[in-house]
Amino acid sequence: MLEEINTIGRRFDARDTLDGRIDEAFVTMQRLGFDALIYDYTPGALDIGGQMMLPSLLKLRNVCDEMHDCWYGQQYFRIDPVQRLAMQTSVPFFWNYDPDAETKIRRFLTEETKPVSDFLHDHGMTAGVTVPIHMPRGDYATVTGIRHGARRDFERDAMRAIADFSLLAQVFHEAAYTLFDRDVLNASRIRLTERERECLRYSSYGLSAKEISRIIDRSVPTVVMHLNAAAKKLGAKNRTQAVVRAAQYRLLDGDVPYKL
């Protein structure tokens, strides 16, 4: 498997759509003993209310459509023990919803997370391997492989394959990420105007409202108005927090048109 990573990378590149590259990952991971794939991407750990942010991308292979509805519509994602652990580690891990199993998600198995446990038990998805992928700007993804109706010997098989699966997940995500569109990358659903974004972007470089006003040829009160409006949309207490949150939600991406 390790010797085939370059070949697998070329297979991903040969697929020119996101779904095509996900299909390619699914085919490859089946050779490692998994028969279901879950792939999600989240642009930040927490939303402006302090809750786990819902993913902007959730792709399933050989998993019932009902899971998508539950993890989004009923927001199971926010209480998913696997996701809670994935936020705190960069190490691939095996998980098991059997209450008697020695598993890293055990401390997250509470009454609050019972809806997730019940759903996975009902659909025979009680054990798997998840690879957390954390990126420099705070966004992250998880690639999860599941075997339906897994017996106790699945853990042994999964742990034998975890290194190869982790490498596959990293290569796959790198290939998939290049095809994300702006809506996927900006999942905060916060809509800043172009002028608000511009003022925040200059503010992130340490410029004062007066300095920004000279650059964009607007009055200081107008700049302050844009900055205050952006801060309100972001739920920020001040301009500094507004810049941090806007950066976290990837709202400041783009070139600065003025040479600083």
TrEMBL record:
Keyword Transmembrane: no
Cross-referenced PROSITE patterns: HTH_LUXR_1, HTH_LUXR_2
Keyword Metal-binding among UniProt keywords: no
InterPro entries: Sig_transdc_resp-reg_C-effctor (IPR016032), TF_LuxR_autoind-bd_dom (IPR005143), TF_LuxR_autoind-bd_dom_sf (IPR036693), Tscrpt_reg_LuxR_C (IPR000792), WH-like_DNA-bd_sf (IPR036388)
GO BP: regulation of DNA-templated transcription
The entry's keywords: DNA-binding, Transcription, Transcription regulation
Domain HTH luxR-type, residue spans: 185-250
Protein name: LuxR family transcriptional regulator
Organism whose genome encodes this protein: Ciceribacter lividus
